[in-house]
Amino acid sequence: MMRLEKSLQAWGTPEFIEVLKREIAQLGAAYLPLQQGLVTGNYVADAPLTVMIHSVTESGEVIRIKAGIFYRGVLGGCSCTDDPTPGSDINEYCVVQLDMDKSSAVTAIALAE
Predict the structure, then answer these.
(1) CB 3.0–4.6 Å: which of 1, 48, 87, 112 could bond 97 by disulfide?
(2) Residue 11's domain spans which residues?
(3) Are 82 and 89 in contact (CB under 8 A)?
(4) What does the pLDDT look like over 6-17, one tens digit per residue?
(5) Both ends of the chain: CA-CA distance in Å?
(6) Residue 36 DSSP SS3
(7) Which one-letter DSSP state was computed for residue 82?
(8) 44-60 pLDDT per residue, tens
(9) Domains in the chain: how many in total?
């Protein structure tokens, strides 16, 4: 779990969505379940992420966010001369759910189903 403190501070303001998108993008692959969200690639490329917010709801002490993450995956080949799939970056996309505690900014992140 991590803390999205800037997003919590912006909660209820017009800037909330933009602050949230920036903060999620800065988390990177280390904190987001991007490897589990791969569809085509073998592993996540070290490249910038793009975040799209699908929904934000408030329930009790939790702010629930569903966000689409656009990122790059790597499809690795064996680098043999007759290998038709040399290593290359490909576009990937997954949807994650973030549950942020409204009092502490502690946030749980999982792939959305």
Answers:
(1) 112
(2) 2-111
(3) no
(4) 999 999 999 999
(5) 19
(6) helix
(7) T
(8) 999 999 999 999 999 99
(9) 1
